[in-house]
Amino acid sequence: MQLTKHAQTRMQQRGITENILDLLYTYGRHVERGSAGALLHFDKRARELIRKSTSRKEYARIEQKLNAYIVEAADGSVVTVGYRYKPVHA
Question: Were both Cys, which of 40, 45, 75, 78 would link to 7 (CB 3.0–4.6 Å)?
């Protein structure tokens, strides 16, 4: 996973860890955004899979971070990360 300097800065500012990025790549929904790249986020199905595959204690620890998203460039590098406040429409 190639992170831009901007993405690294945003991760630090927003408290998004590499663990959350790994979960996004493993369970997240991939939404193409044309030539601009793609968006990865946790949908309802992804949250349920994470809940089932982790302990109750671990899920409680990361649950508040499950609104995280990744914006990828067309070359696959991570441009930025953040938290969703509105639903993602495909």
Answer: 78
The span from the CA of 25 to the CA of 38, in Å, is: 12
Q: Rounded distance, CA 79 to CA 7, Å?
A: 5
Instruction: Give pLDDT tens digits along the chain (90 positions).
Output: 799 999 999 999 999 999 999 999 999 999 988 777 899 999 999 999 999 999 999 999 999 999 999 999 988 899 999 998 877 665
Query: Is 30 part of a structural domain of the chain?
Result: yes
3-state class (DSSP) for residue 32: strand
| Residue 72, φ and ψ in degrees, nearest 5 | -105, 145
- State the total domains in the chain: 1
